[in-house]
Amino acid sequence: LMMYCGEGTRAFCMKLKGDLMRYRAEILEGEERTASIQKAVELYEDALERERSFLDNYPTDPLYLATALNYAILKYTVLGNPKGAIKFVKRIIKTAQNSSSSHDPNSEPLSENSLKLIQILNDNVACWEEGTSGLLTSAFF
Question: What is d(CA 116, CA 118) in angstroms, rounded to the nearest whole number?
């Protein structure tokens, strides 16, 4: 069925599968947990790669930002890598900000969803840098 889907649908499905594997990893133990973590990482990275390849405005597209947010939460909570999550999110935010500020004056402003996701990413970084898990809101779109 996936072979008949467009790239956006494939990327979204990869993100959702990554979310599912992250949720599984949060409740499983042992080898099952390890396998779920590995699969979640693979799926999130696949989704991000797909999104970069076909989205005209990938650094600020809500699908890309939502995938990045959920992947960062995996890094922070499940992998126990706060420094890696912070570094990853800061890079995502910087890329999005550079992309939105370098557009020509006739381009469209960031969507409401993009602005919300960038704010959530910023809020998470602020909480994580303070040493608290904070917001950790997943994005479902």
Answer: 6
Q: Which amino acid is at 91?
A: R
- B/e letters for 1-35, b = 16+ CB within 10 Å, e = fewer, are eeeeeeeeebbbbbbebbbebbebbeeeeeeeeee
Query: Helix, strand, or coil here: 132?
Result: coil
Tokens read off for 93: 């935010």
Question: 38 is written with which tokens?
Answer: 């590995």
CA dist., res. 65 & res. 89, Å (int): 10
For residue 78, what is the DSSP state?
A: I
pLDDT tens across 91-123, in order? Answer: 999 999 888 775 556 566 888 999 999 999 999
Q: What is the DSSP letter of 5?
A: S
